[in-house]
Amino acid sequence: MLQTFSTQKWDETFSSSTQQQAICNLERGQILYFPQLAFALSPEERNLLSPIYADPHSKNISYQPDNNKLWGVQHLSDEQHLQLKLMLDRFCNQALDFIHALFPQYAQYLVLGRTSFRPVQISKRQTSYRKDDRRLHVDAFPSAPNQGKRILRVFCNINPHGEDRVWRIGEPFEQVAHRFIPNIHKPFPGSAVCLRFLKITKSYRTLYDHYMLCLHNQMKADESYQKKAQQCEVRFPAGSTWIVQTDQVSHAAMEGQYTVEQTVHLPPHAMQDESRSPLRILEKILKQPLV
Questions:
Q1: Which end of the chain is more exposed for a tag (fewer CB within 10 A), N or C?
Q2: How many domains would you assign to the chain?
């Protein structure tokens, strides 16, 4: 489930054998774990570690590196706003360089996504079941279809009080898909066009996006599954980093506060073994192309 590395710096140089092992394990649904890879903060940045700066109407504080946009915040002075942008931009660059070094064959295909800061204690968050990340799920986004691209994420626990980030890890993706996909209906004809026209989605919702979103929702809605599915607890201490493809790994975040995260997207054809992608697994189950 976890492949552990002794890496302690973000500008690490990896041997070809380490790169090969890492990419194989990542694509098989394992989590790459770096217990000694911390994201260092300045004293000014440590002052930003408070939930009071998170907009309660937003799930996370988000930063878009491409246009230097920050949202999901409140009560920040102009100086603090700039400091938080610079902190998240630095994490974005370090995480992206790290991914390039560990997965060089991915480098030319990666599409940079959002950077997030999660200062709220997740165990106390009150929300709808669909937004409740304490329930086992695989990632899929209602308003941001990814049309089959992989969701690769770098997480780092920056908790200043030494508290762990606690996850549950569930069943392999193919097992989850075989359980839920037979109960998912096809989308209504023309629904994807309507969703795009009404700007409910930011891009066209493919059949793949439809099935993944329904899978995500059904997993979270099924109380019996949440309790009885094969699962185990994993704890990520403060100062540790982990890399995981969250569209493939069934997971739930149960406890923890103060995490930074970087998302990148990868087309399945750039994988070493494309057959392991959720897109190809769902196409095999449904016996039809989904994008």
A1: N
A2: 1
Range of the domain at 176: 2-286
Instruction: Find residue 244's DSSP bridge partners.
Output: 153
Non-local CB neighbours of 73 within 8 Å, separated by 6+ positions: 53, 54, 55, 61, 81, 84
Provide the CATH number for the domain around residue 145.
2.60.120
Asked if 88 and 117 touch (Cβ cutoff 8 Å), the reply is yes
| Residue 163 resides in a domain | yes
Look at residue 94 and tell me if it is in a domain. yes
Determine, yes or no, domain membership for 291. no
Residue 181 lies inside a defined structural domain of this protein: yes
Q: How many CB atoms lie within 10 A of CB 72?
A: 17
Calpha distance 53→287 (Å, rounded): 47
d(CA 138, CA 165): 18
Segment 258-271, tens digit of pLDDT: 999 999 999 999 99
> How many other CB atoms are there within 10 angstroms of residue 222's CB atom?
18
pTM (two decimals): 0.95
pLDDT of residue 127: 83
